[in-house]
Design a protein that fits this description.
mainly alpha; 61% helix; globular; DUF6033
Length: 282
């Protein structure tokens, strides 16, 4: 298995891959980050720590790895880990938990939950986890979300910092979103490209990943309890309305599409509970 920020795959020692030769991004790291990476490799000899920024490079490097467990970080993550002990400790905790839980690995900074928990067999693995594992999963999801949220807000603040009128109105989180909704700002090409990547089909804030994350979060909180899942779904709907209020107008279409996709996951779950047990277990 591999634990990666934007890619997960199963790798067996005997599997052969025909992947193009690619280069990691570790040569872009500062001396401090390179030393930290070397220390990680020394402590976790069974893991292949990979540093890459491009999603295609990440996937190719994982496939080329000769170790059973690959852990992928971006250069920015590795730099932050080298400087921030608390952040690094949380990252390593996520990795350790992911390895212990085996196949329950999801895209996104080594968070331990199964991407696409609605399996073809009809079983919902997160709902079936014991209470302790689900509690640990919730903590990891929260930590991952806070990290991603901080990165997004930091990106927005940097974008607006040179635009005095806009930034002056965006002094707190809610006003930041209202400023974005107003459209009275400009972005440079790099920021635009990053934003487009983040909300793309396979991006962290895209419809697919975000809706699955909402559903998985609900599953971890509710367990295999239909009534509690319905409560979680209602809470999700309430959260959408609160986000709309903070935005100051109707949310972008991607947000509505995400809500619809998450609701479909809930509906699929409810239908699975109505089906005969024998059909679910086939």
């Amino acid at each position: 298995m591999s634990i990666g920020i934007s890619g997960v795959s199963q790798v067996g020692a005997s599997t052969q891959y025909e992947a193009p030769a690619v280069k990691s991004s570790e040569d872009k790291l500062s001396k401090k980050a390179q030393d930290y990476l070397a220390d990680l490799r020394s402590k976790y000899g069974d893991y292949d720590f990979i540093v890459a920024n491009d999603s295609d490079d990440k996937k190719a490097l994982v496939k080329q790895s000769t170790k059973s467990t690959s852990v992928v970080f971006s250069t920015s993550e590795m730099e932050r880990m080298a400087k921030d002990e608390k952040y690094a400790a949380q990252k390593l905790k996520n990795i350790d938990t992911a390895v212990r839980n085996g196949n329950k690995i999801a895209e996104g900074q080594g968070v331990t939950y199964e991407k696409g928990s609605t399996q073809s067999s009809g079983l919902y693995s997160i709902n079936k986890m014991n209470k302790a594992d689900r509690s640990a999963l919730v903590d990891q999801l929260k930590a991952d979300m806070e990290s991603r949220k901080s990165q997004l807000i930091d990106l927005v603040q940097k974008t607006l910092s040179g635009q005095v009128d806009s930034f002056g109105k965006a002094s707190d989180e809610n006003s930041i979103w209202r400023t974005l909704a107003s459209g009275k700002f400009t972005v440079d090409a790099a920021t635009k490209a990053q934003a487009q990547k983040d909300i793309s089909e396979d991006g962290y804030w895209g419809v697919k990943q975000t809706s699955q994350r909402l559903f998985d979060f609900a599953s971890a909180l509710a367990g295999d309890d239909v009534d509690k899942m319905k409560e979680m779904q209602a809470a999700m709907e309430k959260g959408y309305k609160m986000a709309t209020k903070a935005w100051g107008r109707e949310l972008p279409s991607i947000s509505k599409d995400t809500l619809d996709a998450a609701n479909k996951l809930f509906d699929d779950y409810y239908r699975s509970k109505e089906a005969p047990k024998s059909a679910i277990e086939e």
